[in-house]
Each structure stands twice: as structure tokens, then as C-alpha cells.
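Re-running Putative 28S rRNA cytosine-C5-methyltransferase isoform X1 to confirm reproducibility after the cluster update. Everything else is unchanged from the original entry.
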Amino acid sequence: MEEACSLPLPDAFIDFLKENGLDPSIYSTGDSIPRYIRIKPGSESELLGIEDEIKCTLEKVLWLPGFYAIPPHIQIASSDAYRQGKIYGMDAASGAAVVALNASRGDHVLDLCTAPGAKLCMLSDLLGDSGSLTGVDVARHRLAACRTMLQKYALGDRCRLFVADGTSFSLLPLRAYMDESAMNISGVPASIETADTFAEWTPRRPWKERKKAMKERNGSHLASADAEPELMFYGRHSGVVGLSKSKLFQTGCGDVAGYDKVLVDAECTHDGSFRHIQKFEQWGWRTLQQRVLDAQRTDTLTDLQLHLLTNGFRLLKVGGTLVYSTCSLTVGQNEDVVERFLSGNPSAEVQEIDAAKNWPCKSGRIPKTLRFDPLTSKTSGLFIAKLKKLAT
Ligand SMILES: C[S@@+](CC[C@H](N)C(=O)[O-])C[C@H]1O[C@@H](n2cnc3c(N)ncnc32)[C@H](O)[C@@H]1O
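Result of re-run:
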């Protein structure tokens, strides 16, 4: 067992880190890394009251607006501020990935691996009452948690969520219908649902519809690559209300009508997340062996990451920006994936992340990419690459 780390990491994990060029001492700060919270815009004036309630000082994260550090042992889930949606738990490195995307008012944003949804919520806050957000996740139960979060924080108004495989998802943003608000395209109030148009979203779907959906999914929690996306939630101004059902499922390629911004926060081994690794102490180090160290699983993962990145980029409009991030610190799941992608996509260019000038992180092996790690950044580990789609 390694002495430098506050956790008794097994030798196989230490070897795994070394093989990936990672210094095991990045985990040594372990339990001294702060927790981070983000304050919902508009609730900053309540800072003192929140401090009083959760019984600690909120230390402003100077390099990331809206974020505060709190001691790691402080729990926020039972506080009123949390229950009322004034504060969110979100690691500062995750916030940095969202900032790197530079989503601005009016943008149509795709979040291709969205659950459980911390980044989606932050994106929604940044867009405000403009643009649109499309969240996709392959895992139905995780996306259901994401929907709950959007509703809890009242952030779902311009959002739609699909259970779908992000490697084949092909639906473009509903630009043409966005400002129709609660009217359908022929001017009929959308609350009058016809067999072919969407009324306002309600959690109570007709039994017939639910039965059909259950039969189609065959009991599985995961969407298959060839299944039609399943619309799990849509907000009042997401462009869906009043739309004909056939129009929603029109597919396309992003070059012209695509998304302005795409976030691919890909599935990974989570080895950069100290708190995730810590869970293996209870789950058993054998589980860590299967989930993180198993070379075959890692190969499958890197293929998945490449396919997610490739499809996200396909759905991006020319001139648009994509951020690829993972909370793994291995080169195989980050720089190698980006390099494989770049070699087959001459219209992709790695971009400088302007906001990053004062960020406490290191450069990745590819110039302009960034790496957060617990030791350098006092955050969870995160790799970020920002890509632009050039006209060809
Ligand atoms: C790192 S988590 C995303 C975290 C999320 N962006 C957030 O901020 O809360 C990765 C997600 O990718 C999803 N995922 C895995 N394979 C996928 C696929 N083929 N298509 C879409 N999502 C996938 C997982 O279900 C998981 O929810």
C-alpha cells in the first residue's frame, strides 16, 4: 500500500496511475479538498443567511464566478438553501468545463452525456430565457434524476431531455419553432393537444403510451443505438410544445442547422474523482479492479468516447464550439481520444480557453487542453479540450 496517500490505495491502482503517467501523490491531498457549491444567480445577496444555515464560511472561488468552497465535511442536502434551489453542489473543475464552452444568450446547446445534470443546470442558468438546451443520456434512470433536478431548480423551461445513445443521436435544435412559445406553428394554442402535436409536458402520460414505451424498451434501463430517442421531458419554451410529433423526430447533420455549442462530458473511469475512488473503500477494491483497471473495459470506453465526440461534432454547426471533458486523468481517455478524433476530422481545431488564464490547472499533452487535478487545483480531476468546427 502507498504511504503518501491518505487512502490505502491498492498496489494495482498505484501501478495503473503510474502506467498512465500519473503521480499517485495527486490523491495525497484527498480528504482536505474542499467541497464546492454554486449559488444560483440572484441568490448572492443571501450569502450571510446561507452561511448561518450551513454553519460555515463560504469562501469565494476567485477564479470561477458564482462558486464557493466549503469544508469537505459540510453536508448541504438538508439545508433550506439547498431544498429551495439557492445552492447546488458542483465541483469547481466541472464548472470550469461549462465556462470553457462559453455558452451565451440565444445559443442552442447540446449536452450529449447529461445525467445527473449539474452541468446542464449551470448551462440553463447561463442561457436564461433564451436559446435552448437539449440533454441526452443513454441511462433512463439517470436521466430521470436529471429531470427531477431541472424541476427542483425550475431550470427546465427551455430544455428537452432524451433517453438516447449519444453516439447515434441525430436530432437538431428546434430553431424554427423556438419563439412560437405556447402556440403551435399554425397558431392554435398548444394546450389543445391533437393526436399529432405536443401539449404542455405533464408527468402523467396516458397508460397506453407508457405500456407501449415499456414494451419497446423490453425492461432495459439503457437506450440502444438504433432506437428512436425517447422524449423524457420538455419545458414550456423548449420549442416542443405545439410541435407536430413528426417534426420533432426529423434528423439531420449539424453543419448548417446544428447546435451552437456541444458539451461531450463523456463516460469514463472517474479515476480523477477522489470522492469516487473513496467509495471503492466500501464497495471493495475488487470492484475498482473491474471498473477502472480492467484493460478490456478501458478499450471499450475509449471507443465509446471517440464515438461520442465524433457524433457531438457532427451535430455542431460550422463556427460552433464543442467541449470534450472527462473526469479521468489517463492520457488514453483524453489526449489519445482527441488526437484520434483530430486525425480524421480536418475541420476540427483545438482552441485556447480564454477564461482559463487564472485557472489553477496544468496544460494537457495537447497544447491548449487543460488538466485539473486534486493536488494542483484543489478540485476533482478533469480534462478539458475545446474544439471549433471550421468551414471546409
Ligand atoms: C460523466 S457522466 C456525465 C455527468 C454530467 N455531464 C453532469 O454534469 O452531471 C457520463 C454520463 O454519460 C452517460 N453515457 C454513457 N454512455 C452513453 C452514451 N452512449 N450516450 C449517451 N450517454 C452516455 C452515462 O449514463 C453518464 O450519465
